[in-house]
Amino acid sequence: MHIAAKVAVETPAPHQRRAEREAIEVPTTMRALGYQGHDVVIRNISTMGFMADADGEFDAESIVRVRLPSLGTVSARVVWAKGGQIGCEFTHEIDLHRLRAVLAATGAAPSRRDRRPRLVS
């Protein structure tokens, strides 16, 4: 396989997710640098980013700050914004253990791959 072909196979397209997302519902505030904060509800999250319902307008490529339970304020880059929703990529990937702390604080269940088997009598 040529190097270019191998890179194309291994590199996800911009619209493809690079990390599995967990469904959550977290009302919070998000603010673009230099602007007033807007109410958002984060609907899913991964170590790489999140998707939220957004009350305000955000431009693609802008840098935003959002507060996450048990994690504090983090920075992200707006990847897309359409129809009252916004997709963002964290500027620094969140460690899996820290993401699990966010999920625990929101009451979100871990994904099936993280669940331990239960003993059934």
TrEMBL record:
Coiled coil: none
An example molecular function term from Gene Ontology annotations: cyclic-di-GMP binding
SUPFAM superfamilies per record: PilZ domain-like
Location of the PilZ domain: 16-100
Cross-referenced InterPro entries: PilZ_domain
A Pfam family recorded for this sequence: PilZ
Official protein name in the record: PilZ domain-containing protein
